[in-house]
Queue: 2 jobs
Job 1
Amino acid sequence: MKTTPIYGWPYPDSADHTRTWEYWQSLALAIEPTVKANANSIAALTAKVPFAMAAGKVAIADRNPDQGGSVVVTYPAGRFTQAPVITVGTASVNSYAPAGTDGSTSTTSFIAKCYNPTTIAATGLVVHWTAVQMTSSSGPGRAEPAAETGPTVNATCHTAGCSNAGTAIPIADNPDVERVVCGVCSQTITDLAA
Ligand SMILES: [Zn+2]
């Protein structure tokens, strides 16, 4: 009998030709504990990590004092099966601008928002975002979910090589939004079809 170099699983070679089922038995008995140990390791790991995640950065146009801005961000197509928890924070070159969201209950997009509460124009605004669905059945994006009944349009990214390219993603048709951004390639989406 020889054994494989990594797990030491037994297998017959030319000198072992007088046996048959014993080889299968010894190999099966060697494989089973290895598979079991790996399954336990994977189960322990997946208990600690989210079911699905996405993250990105989205630039917001400069904002005058007491003015807010918002941009629609599409998630990677098919990433979420439940509305994820969205966490945002804003970076600015010269100011302090709090970030927020629309509390989206969508599995396909959310609206990133920021506001300039200072007395000078805020420039270089970028909202950093993380969307997390912890398990296959949970990840509510809002403490008290409400149906989103407003009008929607389909946003389609056309960036070459982007995994979202060509996929129409429904988003809220919000007139306050300055633009729509692909959450995968960060490019502005101009293909907005009703
Ligand atoms: Zn894209």
Job 2
Amino acid sequence: MKRTARGIFASLALLPSLALLPASPAAAQAAQPAAAPQPVAAQPAAAQHVPLPDMEMVARALGVECSHCHVRRRNGEPEVVATTGKPKLEIAKEMIVMTRDLNATIQAASGKSATEATRVECITCHRGVAIPKQLSEIILRTVLDNGGAAAAEQYRELRERYYGRASYDFSEAELLRTAQRLLDRRPDDAIALLELNLEYNPSSAASYAAIAYAFTRKRDPVSAIMNLEKALELNPNDGFARGRLEQLKDDLSRSRR
Ligand code: HEC
Ligand code: HEC
């Protein structure tokens, strides 16, 4: 149920309470000479009014449509609620207050003036997604719930959709970090993520070294050796991998004797 910005303005405008609202942030700033938004901390403490952020900016920051938070209330449609049952509009309202408070703290902590201090906006955390999380956290959760293959599929989907934006870190390090947390307990899932990493970063020596480690956990020294050799081919300066390789070869030849 997508709705254009204009559509929602039209429907919201039917609400009696609405007439004043869009104008009020502007009214709050009318006394100020500059067009730049005035930080809330500069207002008297008694002022309860929190200026609404620009709604187009809010929607873009979360990567959502207006209808993510707003519904056409005149039809008696139910509110848009989060998985917890809490209305998204309520969450957003509290987020607006939180963002204002963060900016007041940042200004005080940095000792900078209102215009000098860097402002936190919705996008600072949200970066184009409704529930901002680090990619490594998302992937780890999926591995634990549904396994490495499902996580790899999710990674591909997210990469397809968000690559080149600021939403997620698609660098080699992020998958590597997630895989490293799984090496000991879930070596197969770790290998799935590391192979995925190699698909996008074919010269990731660290991925080969980590795969080698996973294979030692699986008591498969032959595969471990192959992967360590590959890691060293890509990064001959990895002394740790070299030591590991010699040790594994030693162990292997001794066990075959
Ligand atoms: C992330 C949630 C969110 C999104 C997305 C969002 N809004 Fe809002 N909007 C709010 C909140 C919160 C308020 C303040 C409501 C209040 O104080 O009762 C608000 C207020 C408004 C108001 C003032 C009237 C009112 O209901 O209080 C208008 C008009 C409005 N939004 C339009 C839009 C439009 C148009 C879009 C899409 C471009 C949009 N909004 C996207 C959360 C959102
Ligand atoms: C300091 C970081 C931070 C800032 C700034 C921030 N948010 Fe959030 N917001 C979060 C986090 C984290 C979540 C996810 C919470 C969860 O559900 O786990 C979230 C969740 C939300 C949700 C619920 C999304 C959903 O679909 O369930 C809304 C709505 C929202 N934020 C609106 C806003 C708006 C509007 C602003 C700007 C006025 C804003 N946030 C600024 C951190 C932030």
